[in-house]
Amino acid sequence: MSMHFEASSSVTLLFDFWDVHGPAGMVLSVFVVLLLTVFYELLKVWKVGLSQRSEAPGPPPFPAPYSPTEGRCFSPQPACLSPQLESHESITALASSPSESTLNPADGTNTATSSSLNSWLQHGLQTILHIVQVTLGYMLMLCVMTYNVWIFLGVIVGSVLGYFLAFPLLIKVE
């Protein structure tokens, strides 16, 4: 096998049955490699989108506890010494805190179980996408290692085209 680029129309890609002889077979093979590279770039964006969706912070299950020093100032200004301000803050804090009647532990258990199942499914999907992405990446690398100029250009153009198509999707995901 030669260790330099050549521009022939005869090459064996990946498997014995993918043996290319002639310009028509080379054009078809370059097109297939180009499409595989575009798919590889789209997989990368999809995987990033899934990981960002799974890391998105959800609302906290309960409001933050009230801190007695929160909202108080410790300067001798007249506004800070007003007892009305302190009582108003206390009433607001009590109104926003959950009471025993609003807390339902059964609802939290179902939410935690479905959330845990959903995270496992997302993690499984991310793992499958990673396996496909790595396999496809190595296959494209082996295509380039045939040192055929046309296959190499197909991978490069497919990568550029795939990134051009996938980049707007990546911006929408963020």
Explain what this protein looks like in three dimensions:
- The protein is mainly alpha-helical and 174 residues long.
- It has a domain at 1-56 and 110-174.
- The chain has four helices and two strands; from the N terminus they run E-E-H-H-H-H.
- The protein has helices at 23-55, 83-96, 105-144, 149-173; strands at 10-12, 19-21.
- It has a two-stranded antiparallel ribbon with strand order 1-2.
- A hairpin with a 6-residue loop joins strand 1 and strand 2.
- Helix 1 (23-55) packs antiparallel against helix 3 (105-144).
- The radius of gyration is 30 Å and the shape is elongated.
- The chain starts with 9 loop residues before the first strand and ends with a helix.
- The model has no long low-confidence stretch (mean pLDDT 77).
